[in-house]
Design brief:
Elements lengths: L1 H28 L16 H10 L8 H31 L2 E7 L3 H9 L14 E7 L2 E7 L14 E7 L3 H19 L5 E7 L22 E4 L11 E3 L17 H5 L4 E8 L5 H10 L7 E6 L8 H12 L1 E6 L8 H8 L3 E5 L19 H5 L5 E3 L5 H9 L3 H39 L1
Parallel strand pairs: 1-3, 1-4, 4-5, 5-6, 6-7, 8-9, 8-10, 10-11, 11-12
Antiparallel strand pairs: 2-3
Helix pairs in contact: 1-3
Length: 442
Amino acid sequence: MRGARRRLCSALIVAYGLFSLYAAYTVFLRPRRPAAPRPHRDRRGPRDFTDHVALGNEEWNPWDADEKNELAASQQRYEANLKMIKYVRSHLEQTSLRVQIWGKAAIGLYLWQHVFGGHLEPADVTAQWREGSQKAGKTYFSFLTGPSVVPGYFSVEAEHVVLVLNGREPAKIAYATQWLHYAQTLMETRKIRHVAVVLLGNEQCNNAWIQPYLKRNGGFVNLLFVTYDYAFVNEEDIFQWPLGVATYRSFPVVEPSWSMLHDPRSYLCNFLGTVYKNSSRETLMEILKQDGLDKLCWIAAREQWQPQETNESFKNYQDALLQSDLTLCPVGINTECYRIYEACSYGSLPVIEDVMTPGDCGNSSMYHSAPLQLLKTMGAPFIFIKNWKELPAVLEKEKKMSLQEKIQRRKKLLEWYRNFKAWMRQKFINTLENSFLPSDKG
């Protein structure tokens, strides 16, 4: 890759030199076209006498204007070519890093489409192979995803790779380790130089299996971005990454509209989800039934989790977010859930049950505000409650809010979410560049 870049730069410099020589010849050395003999005229009219008086002793040259135009055109071509070469050279100089992202978990779509604002071709979400690219900072990113992206059957076009993997359960971990071993082989054969991993972590933060692959532990993975409140986050080589929306259920990139911001919403709140036995969600349902609060909210509870949405259920869910001022977010296996980010997408304020769930998640050496330490650190304007018994007071306050107050709150929420994604994007880029670029200079 570096040899190809050198050859391209050399070719551009040679072309630049040739253009410079040609332009100098055109402007300064090329002989002018000799004046053609003046055509004989049988009759001399008043214009001939006037021209003669105006020109005096100078020979009149009817092609003089053409020569000047040609000279000007040559100069313009020279300047345009010079500008093009300077642009290409500056572009090459600024693009110091080329990174290929292998999206082998649905969270990769949140990274590329929602955080980076990137596009994929083809647009069909069921396509076997999808790809996109963009330049950001000093880095040129390319993204590959789809079932046809398998180890050894696609072109590795960068020395720096980001692997997006799913480590939520044993079967997913087994598949993820195949990709890690493939990347390790490429490292050993010097096909690639650096590897970072974006990991959909275990909901109980049991991610011990990834530790031996980290460079700090003798492995080859330079950087790890991991979801949930992983206690090993240190802001040096391990970073917390947002869970994001449920892209595996094709949750879209939502563009805010005027009506989303300004229209009155039909419901104070919504909850569409699974109610697990002996969970706080049962408490939530009981409280909503008190004093008829469930009549003020869009409630659709089910007893069993469904991984796939039907077209009807997905539309109902989106409508509920769009038509509700608040979105209730009770804890599941983990406090962080897709619902939080999906509610932000539609300007529906998340009401979050702010309690730790069982497992190994918790405060890290860098952050002491778990759960949801990443969102809290970024100043998320949510409503956090410790017990659903606080909900009636929240809804009572909601009833008294004017539409104008709600409009301002929606604007604040949507602006925060936009800034949050922009901040995560820049942090991701800066982290890669700071980690990968110094090695290139050595």
